[in-house]
Design goal:
alpha+beta; Jelly Rolls; 2 domains; disordered N terminus
């Protein structure tokens, strides 16, 4: 079995485009620059920099042009692999104080050397046999744990998220385009409990509240910040510009373009 690589070399299961980070990810930027939005903060990587995106977080890669041109290598540390690794090497999970969604690694030679060691394994089609992928994934994890032993508390923590404050979480994460099931999971609730608690807190259904919240934010950005609908709709959780424009007009009785035009007329 082989895994194809283009601008991205992915080691592990495929990453879904959904904005829910289901598994730990290790990013190494070979060249270029790229940004990601995790836990309310924007993190930027430049050539030769690397770090870990923690699982059970909401986040998204910046859609800026440089991200598409950046050459990056991504290792996915999924739970089955981690459990097998932990059993093999007898690592014990320790506590880690930091709750940051993105963990940077300090300068060292071990990780860049490992990345360079991948090159001879690529064939003419830019592919590497899965067996070599697995060996290199183990090697990387051993290096990470050697450099920062406390990361065992990140990688070998298999607990599901606990129940948290629903209002605070939703006010902070309403822009992410994920399912109600994901929101429920991340707040430590079943779907039915999430909907029940949501109705109590916001007096609306989750779907209705999310749409209105995102559209009011869009109105603010267009009217006050001179943003274009085409530049903000994805960052506000809408998959298509046409859907965004239709919902915007239905709520405000004018299109984003008409709102922007009104502002220009006033100026």
């Amino acid at each position: 079995m082989k895994t194809s690589v283009n601008k991205t070399c992915l080691i592990g299961p495929a990453i879904k485009p959904e904005q829910f980070i289901a598994e730990h990810l290790f990013f190494y930027l070979v060249n270029g620059s790229m940004s990601g939005y995790y836990g309310g903060e924007t993190y930027t990587l430049k050539s030769g920099e690397y770090g870990i995106v923690r699982k059970n977080r909401l986040g998204r890669m910046d859609s800026a042009k440089e991200n598409h041109q950046a050459e990056k290598i991504i290792f996915v540390f999924d739970e089955p692999f981690l459990k097998k690794f932990q059993d093999k090497y007898k690592f014990i999970s320790s506590r880690i104080k930091s709750d940051e969604p993105f963990l940077r690694m300090g300068d060292n030679e071990l990780i860049p050397n490992l990345i360079r060691s991948l090159k001879p394994y690529f064939d003419l089609q830019g592919q590497i046999d899965k067996a070599f992928f697995e060996l290199k994934r183990e090697e990387l994890l051993l290096i990470l744990l050697k450099l920062r032993p406390e990361l065992s508390g990140v990688f070998f923590d298999y607990r599901i998220p606990g129940k948290i404050d629903l209002e605070e979480f939703m006010e902070r994460n309403y822009k992410f385009n994920v399912s109600i099931e994901r929101f429920a999971y991340l707040t430590g609730r079943s779907v039915s409990a999430f909907k029940r608690d949501f109705k109590t807190v916001f007096n609306q259904t989750p779907n209705r509240w999310l749409v209105k919240k995102r559209l009011h934010e869009a109105y603010f950005l267009i009217e006050r910040k001179n943003e274009r609908a085409s530049e903000i709709y994805q960052d506000l959780g809408f998959e298509a510009l046409s859907h965004f424009s239709f919902a915007f007009k239905k709520l405000f009785n004018l299109t984003p373009t008409e709102l922007a035009g009104q502002k220009k007329d006033v100026n």
